[in-house]
Predict the structure.
Amino acid sequence: MNAVVFAYHDVGVRCLKVLLARGVQVSLVVTHEDSATENIWFGSVAGVCRDNGIPFITPADAKSPQLLAQVQAAQPDFIFSFYYRHMLPVELLAAAKRGAYNMHGSLLPKYRGRVPINWAVLHGETETGATLHEMTAKPDAGAIVAQTAVPILPEDTAYEVFGKVVVAAEQTLWNVLPAMLSDRTPRLPNDLTKGSYFGGRKPEDGRIEWRRTAREVHNLVRAVAPPYPGAFEEIAGDKITVTKTRLVPPSAHPALQKAHGMQDKFFEGGKLYARCGDGNFLQILGIQINDRDASLNNYLKYMAS
């Protein structure tokens, strides 16, 4: 079986390796040039290609006639997209004799669209996963081939959940690929009326609003914690990024309230706390000042300002 693979990031690396391990001939890989302005904390699909002698290209436009011609010339049985960042046009998808399939980082039909893991953590979900599905003109709308769930624990960051989803993606592809190669690809309903769609996120979306509930602030911190841009506030011209928090159990609230009244942020027993809009408290466990790790004690000068 011959495949053309569009891939990037850790999911792209692991799923490309699954195809090779299952004996699929990968005739061409389409990936992205790493951006000098992006924090590259993930594996290199181009590096896997170099290690395995697989030809790869990095076109800027997924809709270019040149790319379509290259894919058609490869005469692929399958086209796979593993965390490739652009939608593929239907003309290109039609070049695959046995279908075109995408690996998405959620349990479809929930969290269609961009950065699904970050959105799931932000909304306090307790579960997400990886879904292999048919590609269509609409994003993440085709029939479901297979999916694998992973838990989201109460203090998991999006980065930690992403690591689980990478493994789930690898397992999903590994388990269903034999059926696909035998022309027995499952096609399960992907009912979009029971799901949700979300767009991309910008660094500015990480701005903390302390008037929100403690749980909402906690989920924001988890959803955008490094290596993502982070949850932040600006004080005296400096950017203060909160990198880790913990919800304070209700049993501790009366003592904190009695000792510190209506103070927004304070130290108690060597620990830094913040009061949120619902009157509940977060313990702040890590901060950065102007994108550099800092001691919690450095917060003192901002609390006094």
The longest strand covers residues 238-247. The two ends are 65 Å apart (CA to CA). The chain has a mean pLDDT of 96. The chain is about 30% helix and 25% strand.
